Amino acid sequence: NLSAAEGIYNFFQLNNVNRSSMIYGIGGGITTDIAAFAASTYMRGCRLSLVPTTFLAMIDSTIGGKTALNYKGIKNNLGTFYPAEKVHVCPNFLSTLPENELRNGWAEAIKISLIGKTDLYEEILNSNRKISDSIIARAIDLKLRLCNIDPEDKQERRILNLGHTFGHIIEKLTDFSTPHGMAVSLGIRAAAQLSFQEGYLTAAEVKKITRVLDYFKFPSFIAIKQDLISQEQFKQILHLDKKSSYKNKKIEINLIVFEGFQKAVQKVFPLEKIYQVIQELIKPI
User: Fold this and answer.
1) DSSP conformational letter for 199
2) Helix (H, G, I), strand (E, B) or coil at 265
3) Which CATH number does 1-97 carry?
4) Does residue 105 contact residue 185 with C-beta atoms inside 8 Å?
5) DSSP track, 118-167
6) pLDDT tens digits, residue range 175-193?
């Protein structure tokens, strides 16, 4: 958040950091995001290198140049585009991580394997749930190809948001207690279900998508308190989503869905449709 960024700015000032100074962000996605944000904004930009230490950070958050901060409870609504000069990926860090943290990365790897034609999907299914250098390298390469085409997230790159709109809703509804990987995996299920309902996917294609999620034992639903899942609560969350817009005084969301297996596309949906689909993933308590 901003207070954390201010602490970094104070450190920079006390230690005479200038635009030629190299800032190193070492850690997981949160650490590297805030380090990159601070480096991009201090004196209008310092030099930046990132050393991701989690699976998710290695293949996703440090790749492509996005920086992000949460502001007033909304995820990633402050940020810049500021690619690091170098990203140093050392898979040895992964041996220090608990299983839950590795699962966050697997969810992002699965997402990348589903957005376009690639045999990374088969490699993940045949991985015995072991992270290989090949899986890391191929996931990075696939993301970089999109980011190089669309560095400012205006068109092609947006398919990387697959599962994230639904996932951010779940994170917000659970006060960010739901692990990011679990939220994204549920978001992918929601996107597949919506695509099936709209006639974009066959039942067999939905099964292929959910097969890889089931392989990693990602849940098919989440328990949330009944009073948190009203349509008005959804409206408040989506009103502040950067992918939302208004048409005839109604909220519409630019959502990434499937138009066939391994073919992610952006389409516009009304809030009511998103609310209906996500309710199918929620078990009220």
Assistant:
1) T
2) strand
3) 3.40.50.1970
4) no
5) -THHHHHHTSTT---HHHHHHHHHHHHHHHHH-TTSSSGGGGGGTTHHHH
6) 889 999 999 999 999 999 9
